[in-house]
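note to self: dont lose this again. the chain is below, predicted strucutre after it. 400 aa total, dont forget to put it in the shared folder this time
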Amino acid sequence: MDASLAAPLTEEQQEIRRTLRDLLAERAGPQENRAATATPQGYDPDLWARMSGTLGVAGLALPEEYGGVGCGPAELALACEEAGRALAPSPLLATSVLAAPLLAALGTPEQRAALLPRLADGSLTCALAVPGGSLALALGLTGDNTAEGWSGGGRAGGVQARAVDGGWRLYGEAAQVLDGHSAGLLLVAAHAGGFARSRTLLFLVRAGAPEADGLVRTRQTTLDSTRTQATVQFRDTEAELLGEEPADVLGALAVTGRDAAVMLAAEAVGSAREALDRTVAHVGAREQFGRPVGSFQAVKHRLADLYVQVEAAHSLTSCAAREPGPGPDSGPLALAHALEALRATAGESIQLHGGIGFTWEHEAHLFFKRAASDELLFGPVRRLRARAAERTGLFGEVAA
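---
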């Protein structure tokens, strides 16, 4: 089911899709993914090295001057779609989609030169640590990230930063940090300046370095085992300010969020397509009352409805990825449609597979867990749509 209402792929994009799909088919099947998530890292380091070093996936959207490929969001979205199709556990989302754009936008020339080439070649992974379990809000997807005290409010809770002897120290906790237990570099959102001059800044913490004393990372049990998460505690931990003050940190987070929404939507579309393809193959082979289950009209109608829903989400995602300078709402709206399509497709996949779809041995339930987990992390769908309506002034004044 590769038919698409979106613009045709270029030769370069077709090559990206072909090579990545072949690699993931070889190294990221259901059994391989289960084995990878059971490792201390939560993913297969060798597969990530091949994705990054051989195929250049980690640096697809990074400038060539920093060792990247210099492609645009359309190519990165294509890579995310293939990763979503395979449900491949990897640092792609945390490192390349969430952290790398912030480092490129806010880092000093020295920080960019030191860190971005290592992100591009896959030798360094990074995690964005946002306190309060409010990643969607911090990225401006479900609300105005300038109006909420999501990083602690400058009073208590969250992560607090204080200047000490020309440097910075962090104290506090962040939960639900994607790849937080294994990333070599943490990008931490923290409040600085006390309550009267409270402001949110981003800090670099190099995990494993001697100066990271007081850093405690604990891997969490997650609904979707391919999305590893951790609780990260900072106990007077030394940190480095990202960039220089003053910097529009909240604005950079919002821009990153809008672009990340496109990549997450592409992942969800890839997962939905794969779940639908597997379901079509199953009902075509399984017989009941002497005929294939897929030949019954009621089943055909259900699959046709899912196909339309998935293709509509794919078209919205492709358009959002190809727009020069995506608008503030195209990404989140595409994400809302894609998450809804994945949830519907994964649910119907379990139903049409019958009892086996609920078992641990079958992969149908893995797509449902991805749908539920992503909506918990980056949604829910109704709030993504509500925020887009606010920003466009659909029901009144245009929101900030």
